[in-house]
Write a structure and sequence with these properties.
heterodimer, A: about 270 residues, mainly alpha, MetI-like fold, 10 helices, extended, B: alpha/beta, Rossmann fold, 2 domains, six-stranded mixed beta sheet, four-stranded antiparallel beta sheet, 10 strands, about 25% strand, globular, Phosphonate ABC transporter ATP-binding protein (chain B), ABC-type phosphonate transporter activity (chain B), phosphonate transport (chain B), translocase (chain B), cell membrane (chain B)
Chain lengths: ~270, ~260
């Protein structure tokens, strides 16, 4: 119902003085932040002094990185591709597992909190464990090699994608769900025709984002023996071959940039 | 035939939604429900397909109790009732025909519909439904590229594709301009007459109610305070329903 039209005979309400919000709150916030930073620095003994004394050594390291040892590329090409392949497998499998779990912990799909809450707890637990720890555990279980790395990325991607997707699902327009219920759709049909078309572009976008993150993550998995380029990176650093490490870093950069640009382009098309 | 038998609805906070409603709506009627906002119009309409539960009483459609239906029975009842919403409730990113086809899911097993493939007959039926509301040529356009009036017609087509026996429309024109309001009302009226689909519409424009309804039901504070033909629904009768004189913004105006 619309509001009734104002009648001109009514007197206009008296003008009330408006006070601008006080500024001290904002200043207090800044002071608090600075205090916290100073406290942290004192407690951990991490000071700008160390940065200044370490600077010459950083320069030395950079100098040793150049010129990069380009002849190293044929050696690192296969492990580099293995890194990307581990990332593709890990992201895809993790993403597929994330879908039903994300549905289970969205309150608008699963009003039963006895299911949604425990699932969310498990999800939080999975996200607490860093990817390298996952890799180290799986290396211990399945032995050294890319399988352990792939499995680590499955869990890692699952945690990220499930979390982001369930938040996207909770933000969808409830109207189409209502319409599908009114049409006589079953629970799964409501999800298929009401939720999926709305959530799919977000899911794809998160999948691509996680893939980017995973390529970077996969390049250090080798440090714990979980396959990929990380093993060679570790070896180069151990032998003080910074020129080789530099080539690995540059090649990773090129691949990450390619994936970054193409996934940004695809995501723009999707949303 | 829709029967309300002593239907009451009390919200958990104690406020009364519906009080002792007894109504019988015959096949093919075009009933418009009027009343102030909060009078229980939506509650009444949405209780017919049990989108809202009632507290006591019984609602029957062609003799089958909606109130007592089990999960799968309820889905079959809902399949035969098309619903039209104020905000259209379409999947905006999907094409028009996909939206209309979604009205067919009740006719197929869950497993079959998961891939989103519908039989040829369903597609033909959906195109015919779109033809009936004059937007067949938009079948493969994304729903969010249509105007509000066109989107509402897609949702009418969805109800037609359902092969619904009853259409419930909850404020179907509240977010449309006067011109498209008339077009949507004309569509609903024409479908009601040509296909003999029982139609129940919530409206707050009283001149529209008089113009399109075959029967007007007035609600006030959850009770039926008026039930009669459009001719009987005089300004005095509306003043009774609203508890005050009719205001000019409650009229859509003549075009």
């Amino acid at each position: 119902m619309r509001a009734p039209l104002p009648t001109p005979s009514q007197p206009s309400p008296p003008v009330v003085d408006i006070q601008p919000p006080l500024r001290y709150k904002r200043y207090a916030g800044w002071i608090l932040l600075i205090l916290i930073i100073v406290m942290c620095s004192i407690q951990t003994k991490v000071t700008p002094y160390q940065l200044i004394t370490g600077l010459p050594q950083m320069g030395q390291l950079l100098k040793e990185m150049f010129p990069p040892d380009w002849s190293y590329i044929p050696t690192i090409w296969a492990p580099m591709m293995e890194t990307v392949q581990i990332a593709i497998l890990g992201t895809t499998i993790g993403g597929i597992i994330a879908v039903p779990v994300a549905l289970l912990c969205s309150y608008n799909i699963m009003p039963n909190r006895f299911i949604a809450l425990p699932v969310r707890m498990i999800l939080n637990l999975v996200r607490t464990i860093p990817d390298l720890l996952f890799a180290a555990i799986f290396v211990a279980v399945f032995g050294i090699g890319p399988f352990a790395g792939m499995l680590a990325l499955v869990f890692f991607s699952f945690g990220i994608i499930a979390k982001l997707t369930f938040e996207a699902i909770e933000a969808i327009d409830p109207g189409p769900l209502e319409a599908m219920t009114a049409v006589g759709a079953s629970r799964l049909q409501v999800i298929r025709f009401g939720v999926l078309p709305q959530a799919l572009p977000y899911f794809m976008s998160y999948l691509l984002y996680t893939f980017e993150v995973n390529v970077r993550a996969a390049s250090v998995l080798g440090l714990v023996g979980a396959g990929g380029i990380g093993l060679l990176l570790d070896r180069s650093l151990g032998l003080f071959r910074y020129d080789r490490a530099c080539v690995i870093i540059l090649l990773t950069l090129v691949i990450v940039l390619i994936i970054d640009y193409s996934s940004t382009w695809i995501r723009r098309k999707l949303l | 035939m829709i029967e309300f038998d002593n239907v009451s609805k009390i919200y958990p906070n104690g406020s009364i939604g519906l009080r002792n409603i007894n109504l019988t709506i015959q096949k093919g009627e075009l009933v418009v429900i009027v009343g102030l906002s909060g009078a229980g119009k939506s509650t009444l309409l949405r209780s017919i397909n049990r989108m809202n539960d009632i507290t006591s009483g019984d609602i029957r459609i062609n003799g089958n109790s909606v109130t007592q239906a089990s999960g799968s029975e309820l889905r079959l009842i809902r399949r035969d009732i098309g619903m039209i919403f104020q905000s259209f409730n379409l999947i905006k990113r999907a094409t028009v025909i996909q939206n209309v086809l979604s009205g067919r899911v009740g006719y197929h097993s869950t497993l079959r519909t998961m891939l989103g493939w519908f039989p040829k007959e369903d597609i033909d039926l959906s195109l015919t439904a779109l033809q009936r509301v004059n937007i067949r040529e938009k079948a493969y356009t994304r729903a969010d590229q249509l105007s509000g009036g066109q989107q509402q017609r897609v949702s009418i087509a969805r109800a037609l594709a359902q092969e619904a026996q009853v259409i419930l429309a909850d404020e179907p024109v509240a977010s449309l301009d006067p011109l498209t309001t008339r077009q949507v009302m004309e569509d609903l009226k024409r479908i009601n007459r040509e296909l003999n689909i029982t139609t129940v519409i919530n409206l707050h424009f009283i001149d529209l109610a008089r113009e399109y309804a075959t029967r007007i039901i007035g609600l006030r504070a959850g009770e039926v305070v008026f039930d009669g033909t459009p001719e009987e629904a005089t300004d005095e009768a509306f003043a009774e329903i609203y508890g005050r004189a009719v205001k000019h913004d409650e009229l859509l105006g003549v075009l």
